[in-house]
NAD-dependent isocitrate dehydrogenase (Geoglobus acetivorans), 652 residues
Amino acid sequence: MKKVAVIPGDGIGKEVMEAAMLILENFNLSFKYVWLEAGDEAEKKYGRALPDETLEEVRKCDAVLFGAAGETAADVIVRLRQELKTFANIRPARTFKGVPALHENVNMVIVRENTECLYRGLEFEVADGITEAVRVITREASERIVRYAFELARREGRKRVTALHKANVMRKTCGLFRQVFYQVAGEYEDIKANDYYIDAACMYMAMRPQMFDVVVTTNMFGDIISDLAAGVVGGLGLAPSANIGEKHAIFEPVHGAAFDIAGKGIANPTAMILTACMMLRHFGYPEYADRIEGAVEKAISEGKTTPDLGGELKTMEMANVVLSYV
Amino acid sequence: MKKVAVIPGDGIGKEVMEAAMLILENFNLSFKYVWLEAGDEAEKKYGRALPDETLEEVRKCDAVLFGAAGETAADVIVRLRQELKTFANIRPARTFKGVPALHENVNMVIVRENTECLYRGLEFEVADGITEAVRVITREASERIVRYAFELARREGRKRVTALHKANVMRKTCGLFRQVFYQVAGEYEDIKANDYYIDAACMYMAMRPQMFDVVVTTNMFGDIISDLAAGVVGGLGLAPSANIGEKHAIFEPVHGAAFDIAGKGIANPTAMILTACMMLRHFGYPEYADRIEGAVEKAISEGKTTPDLGGELKTMEMANVVLSYV
Ligand SMILES: CC(C)[C@H](C(=O)O)[C@@H](O)C(=O)O
Ligand SMILES: CC(C)[C@H](C(=O)O)[C@@H](O)C(=O)O
């Protein structure tokens, strides 16, 4: 029995969570769901975006299924990632038949380091008007994330792992990351390894995203390249993600609370449903994940989608179509 | 009389410089050219990528016209930018008729802060396997670059300035940058001001680059978004840039030495020629810049280009076509 903390959060988080749960509850899973609060609304109610009770409960869970948070997103999600030591942020980006995108046949997984870099919160105003942030890169965290990327490549039958960095400018921090990358790469002779500067990589991502298979990079660059990759394959409506640690995991769509469309029932549930599939795979239900993903693809290819993808369905209508195809 | 240091550098730098000089020398300009060395070859010859003599000479010049450097690019260009205090890195990105691009009607200018952020070189190995880089953001440099962006917008009749940052994570450094941005924006009521997180901005850049007019951001984010923007409008073959300071200026194409095609005479001279145009505008020759840019556009729209843009011309052949159209 796995304990899953369900945190719908703010804005469309609630709506897409309802859609994902509709589908999950259709399966006979050995999950116990615990519904919890976090985000802007929680902050208003309890004075903290991530209330102590939520954090306490979450620590007792095996996974968090997270919808979205609004203004407080960083307080909630960055803190959760750190508290639960989920060191690997996994962000697949692929094209779907029926979804307009800049390119065809894109299928990559971005593996983003999730614990250090500029996300450590080490910032100081050292004098009036002089601020600094400390970017921390360690051998240990770099090795762990690079190894994770190569293992993922092997597990998924992928052929290449590409490291992104800016070692020509940050010789010590990015230099360490690149050095560790090639060291670990040496242990995986079946998988190709190469590296690019982050700036060039962003240009390639726009022009020839098929160059990428597994991408591994540090936290801030991973944040940037994963949004970019989502944009290249058709937008955030389709982008799931998983944060994996030794004991805990957090599953969240890459999109946010989207207050502009919240409450209208038109949010695209795809990213959240695909996020739930990542959780199913994580807990050993790959066949269910396959079936749901197949159903999502069928719905999208038939135009049975929410308006953002050109369809006319509401969030729960699309969820019901997917469910009927499962 | 303006003194211009001409540094062709490595790889295709030499070839595209020859093309740009062919065109510049056709005009009666009050320039004195001083040819200097820097880059990989200089390092081999003199032991330093940026020889002291070059740096000394460059200090006596009003501008540097730079081709490209290879492996030593960071040693040369980052150092030159710092030594010459060129605080503003100006990178226009626009579509050209006849150049395949992901989108149409893109026309933006990226204004990148050029002196601080993660480019200060403040890096330490604080313990074995533990490295850090310090990201410095100051009110003074932020205000200077933001003001430059608004002045540029006004001068070029542009309507909006957009700031990019990650203030939800880096509250102090990016927070300061954003705060200064809106403070300065208040003085420019004729120009709209807005801001995005850098990750979202990269997604928008891929999906709807027409959203951007003038973009202003800190050094590392500026490095990333400018390569991305170049990719969105068709690649580095067309991307010029200028580094502007109080006393000095450096003009360089965004592309590098491209050793893979160097020596074949097929490098696209467009970025370098457009870079020369930025220098002409800087020194008060806007009508010449207009004429050359018009000639470049005509050549490109007629397919009279190098192979990277689908044409059949060699570097100097394309330069001669442009010259004949000036
Ligand atoms: C909300 C924000 C703190 C977060 C991040 O930067 O990691 C988001 O952009 C993401 O990518 O999940
Ligand atoms: C070569 C490198 C140091 C440089 C930079 O990062 O500024 C380049 O990428 C650029 O954008 O001009």
Notes: Chain B is about 40% helix and 20% strand. Chain B has a mean pLDDT of 97. The two ends of chain B are 23 Å apart (CA to CA). The CA atoms of residues 101 and 234 of chain B lie 5 Å apart.
